[in-house]
Amino acid sequence: MNTTFVEKKENLIQYFKEIGEDVGNVTLFSLRFFKEAIQPPYEMKEFVKQCYIIGYKSLPLVTITGFIMGLVLTLQSRPTLAKFGAESWLPSMVALSLIREIAPVITALICAGKVSSGIGAELGSMKVTEQIDAMEVSAINPFKYLVVTRILATTLMIPILVFYADAVGILGGYMGMNIHSEVSLYRYLAEVLQSIKFSDIFPATIKTFFFGFFIGMIGCYKGFNAANGTESVGKAANSAVVTASLSIFIIDMIAVQLTDLLI
Amino acid sequence: MKQETGYQWKLGMFVIIGLVLFIGTIYFIGKQKNLFGSTFELNSKFKSVNGLEVGNNVRLSGINIGTIDGIEFLTDSSVVIKLVIKDEVRKFIKKDAIASISSDGLMGDKVLTISAGKISKIVVEDNDNIVSKESVEMDDLLVSVKKSVDNAAIISTELATFSYNMNNGNGALSKLVSDEQFGNSIKKTALNLENSTEEFKKFTTKMNDGKGALSKLVSDQRLGKVIDSSLTNVKTATKGMNEVIEAAKNNFLLRGYFKKKKKGEEKKQDEQADLEEIEMKKELKIGVENDSL
């Protein structure tokens, strides 16, 4: 009985130690990123390539998701608004929901699934197959080449993907409106633009940079620090998705709270 | 592993379109808030802004012409609102324009409405002050609604008492409504009244047609004059007759008759007096007898 309690206590302490270690490592990893990102030389070619893979290649997925979200949100909100006779508020409500919350979070989650796991698996397998070590040997800074380019690419591409998701989502909303009633595109867009304020766009855009940064950072950290052995590649990818998704929600909560306080 | 080449332009297009979407949205929102294009400012002083916020629309004749740029306290009971309005509509706003706060729909945002003045023809200038009209606040509205509701409650109570009395009371109005017998009698009365009026109508018609004696008496002016003159004649005749009778009394042929008649009357009077005396005596006698008994 006593032994089990002691074991449990030790396990708990070990668990918290691991968490503390992880947080410490991530902090160091982030600091290293900022240091390496500022210092030349810059891996521009790799950065552009990563932007292409992360941004352009994720576009179809984000477009489809955004469109469906806009459409579904319109169709789901319509009955409730119709109860109050406020169907005319549907475009503004859908646009505000998309721009402020749904498009950034959904896009970030999609990218966490697609990009973060991809980065985690890629870097993990590189680590396992000792390619990273090989890079160091051939006088290439693997951190600069692999990590900095990817984190910068996600940080810059996620916001652009969110703009697409916003636009396509609003178009999806237009289609949703036209399933039950007839609204011209001009009228719909006028209604949408009338309801949006700068205070809706800017906080939402700023938080997407953070989403992008954390998606890239978590993917890179998990991959870069994968243990030896093939199974650790899967673990790194899986852990990257889970942690990135969770961090997105936490950042979102903090961002909404800050927006609420400041604006 | 397949090496992709020529991806840069795809990435470039992706980034450009993404940024165009973002900048386009910013531009259109800015345009709505009058950030681009020339504008001018107006100020208006209100006691209460009723929840109007910075960024709400300003309307002239129902058209959005600008936005609220700032709301500041002037004193503890007055607030000054700064309006930013498109320069192109300045010519339509005169110095005596009136600003008022209203709602966009039942649940909608507040809007500031500028209504045109009546007299002035001078166009407003930048940073001018325009007069304001305080809007009806919901609280005031509720107070008046409460008053009406209270009155309605009193009226309905009175109405309930009235209708109860009407159904169960014994008053004339109640009987009129609920008592069948009373209703029938009123109906009969009404029928009789109708008949009477019919008869009266016939009577008045006959009276007016001027054929009967009474009718002529009423309506014939000539008859009236004839009667009048006849009566005058009768008056003259009776006067003459009195004189004749007086003369006859003094005439020796008829004097005896009048004297005899006078005497007869006197005798009658005496006899009457005797009879009354005997009656009295009889009564007295009876009274004495009763006393003695």
TrEMBL record, chain A:
What subcellular locations does the record give? Membrane
- Keyword set, alphabetical order: Membrane, Transmembrane, Transmembrane helix, Transport
- Quick check: keyword Plastid in the entry? no
Residue spans crossing the bilayer: 53-75, 145-165, 201-224, 236-256
Q: How does it sit in the membrane?
A: Multi-pass membrane protein
Q: Name one Pfam family in it.
A: MlaE
Q: Domain of life of the organism in this record?
A: Bacteria
* Cellular component GO terms held in the UniProt record: ATP-binding cassette (ABC) transporter complex
The molecular function terms of the Gene Ontology recorded here are: phospholipid transporter activity
Alphabetical list of PANTHER family matching this protein:
ABC TRANSPORTER PERMEASE PROTEIN-RELATED (PTHR30188), PROTEIN TRIGALACTOSYLDIACYLGLYCEROL 1, CHLOROPLASTIC (PTHR30188:SF4)
Return the similarity comment: Belongs to the MlaE permease family.
How is this protein named in the record? Phospholipid/cholesterol/gamma-HCH transport system permease protein
Give the species. Answer: Flavobacterium micromati
Q: What is the lineage of its organism?
A: Bacteria, Pseudomonadati, Bacteroidota, Flavobacteriia, Flavobacteriales
UniProtKB/TrEMBL annotation, chain B:
Q: Which residues form the Mce/MlaD domain?
A: 42-117
Keyword Transmembrane (UniProt): yes
Which residue ranges run through the membrane?
Answer: 12-30
* InterPro entries from the UniProt entry: Mce/MlaD, MlaD_Phospholipid_Transporter
Native source organism of the sequence: Flavobacterium micromati
Q: Pfam families recorded for this chain?
A: MlaD
Q: Which UniProt keywords apply?
A: Membrane, Transmembrane, Transmembrane helix
Q: Which domain of life is it from?
A: Bacteria
Can the keyword Membrane be found in this entry's annotation? yes
Q: What is this protein called?
A: Phospholipid/cholesterol/gamma-HCH transport system substrate-binding protein
The signal sequence is none
